[in-house]
């Protein structure tokens, strides 16, 4: 344990040999000896209380060991120093944002972002993170306000207009959301097809399937040579019950990119299964296996599909 390491009961060697003990602590963490590593970081902090990298390393060690609440306390300590400094480095802020997102603590995330943006109101990166926090916490009105500010600050950025579109759609403002994406497409016409495909995904995710269908059709009108966009439209059509039409767009994708037909048939099988078209899914998975017989994932999907259709014997023989 830590107490048995040479020099740890003597403060002076630790003051001199920070790098040595720091490296040893890192090794403990890599070896998943978290308690030993954490104790060593804490010992180092006693002799080097102003060393922020030690606090950050301790926070990471707590996080890796599953003690997220203790990691947050370390990061909050660092955050206070960041906020008080003349230059905002944002290291602790970034880590707290990541943890709050991973842990789905969206109200805490929003509160953190609002506090930091209040001190740095013209920072584009911080405003972008705030806008995302607003969306995650369901504060769509505030999200729209933030992204409108960003489009004014950087009026030539299509990304900000896409984000504004997402905020409007989350609020149920479909027309305004579509207009924001159209603005993005005007700014960067080479990426217009991608923007309308992305709009289709956002609308579909929110349950606006007819509008999503129109958006992806606009994408294909701009660029009909991208197979994954044909798959996107196929997914949206199948979700609406337009199975034959949806499968036809998958055929388009396969014609455009024959070497990838196995992955397209597998994706088709997945969306058909998700929408309870199990017989059609069985056929799609069968074609995926025929295209790539050695792919174990496709064979697994086919076996599962047979079982859904009562074909246990066929599943066992795959």
Report on this model:
It is a single chain. Helix 16 (261-274) runs antiparallel to helix 17 (278-291). The protein is 77% helix and 0% strand. The protein has helices at 11-16, 18-30, 34-47, 52-64, 68-84, 91-102, 106-119, 124-136, 140-153, 158-170, 174-187, 192-205, 209-222, 227-239, 243-256, 261-274, 278-291, 296-308, 312-316. Mean pLDDT is 94; it is low at 1-11. It contains 19 helices and no strands. It has 318 residues and is mainly alpha-helical. It folds into three domains: 1-80, Tetratricopeptide repeat domain (Serine Threonine Protein Phosphatase 5, Tetratricopeptide repeat, Alpha Horseshoe), CATH 1.25.40.10; 104-223, Serine Threonine Protein Phosphatase 5, Tetratricopeptide repeat (Alpha Horseshoe); 226-318, Tetratricopeptide repeat domain (Serine Threonine Protein Phosphatase 5, Tetratricopeptide repeat, Alpha Horseshoe).
Features:
0% strand; mainly alpha; Serine Threonine Protein Phosphatase 5, Tetratricopeptide repeat; 318 residues; 3 domains
Query: Topology as H/E string?
Result: HHHHHHHHHHHHHHHHHHH
Rg (CA only) = 26 Å
Q: Number of DSSP strands?
A: 0
CATH superfamily of the largest domain: Tetratricopeptide repeat domain
Main β sheet profile: none
Output the CATH topology of the largest domain. Serine Threonine Protein Phosphatase 5, Tetratricopeptide repeat
C-alpha termini separation: 53 Å
Overall CATH class of the largest domain:
Mainly Alpha
């Amino acid at each position: 344990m830590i107490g048995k390491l040479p020099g740890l009961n003597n403060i002076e060697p630790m003051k001199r040999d920070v790098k040595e003990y720091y490296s040893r602590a890192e090794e403990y963490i890599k070896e998943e000896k978290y308690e030993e590593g954490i104790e060593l970081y804490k010992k180092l902090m006693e002799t080097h209380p102003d060393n922020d990298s030690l606090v950050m390393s301790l926070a990471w060690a707590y996080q890796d060991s599953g003690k997220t609440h203790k990691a947050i306390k370390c990061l909050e300590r660092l955050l206070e120093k960041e906020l008080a400094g003349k230059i905002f480095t944002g290291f602790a802020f970034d880590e707290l944002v990541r943890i709050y997102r991973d842990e789905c603590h969206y109200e805490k995330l929003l509160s953190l972002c609002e506090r930091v943006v209040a001190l740095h109101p013209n920072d584009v990166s911080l405003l972008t993170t705030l806008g995302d926090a607003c969306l995650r916490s369901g504060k769509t009105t505030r999200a729209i306000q933030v992204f409108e500010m960003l489009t004014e600050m950087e009026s030539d950025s299509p990304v900000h207009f896409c984000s504004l579109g997402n905020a409007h759609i989350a609020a149920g403002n479909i027309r305004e959301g579509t207009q924001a994406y159209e603005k993005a497409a005007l700014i960067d016409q080479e990426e217009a097809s991608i923007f309308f495909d992305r709009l289709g995904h956002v609308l579909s995710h929110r349950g606006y399937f007819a509008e999503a269908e129109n958006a992806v059709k606009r994408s294909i009108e701009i660029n009909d040579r991208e197979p994954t966009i044909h798959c996107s439209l196929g997914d949206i059509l199948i979700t609406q019950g337009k199975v034959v039409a949806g499968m036809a767009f998958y055929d388009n994708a396969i014609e455009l990119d024959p070497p990838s037909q196995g992955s397209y048939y597998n994706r088709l099988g997945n969306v058909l299964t998700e929408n309870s078209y199990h017989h059609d899914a069985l056929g799609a998975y069968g074609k995926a296996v025929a295209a790539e017989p050695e792919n174990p994932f496709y064979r697994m999907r086919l076996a599962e599909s047979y079982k859904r259709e009562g074909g246990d014997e066929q599943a066992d023989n795959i």
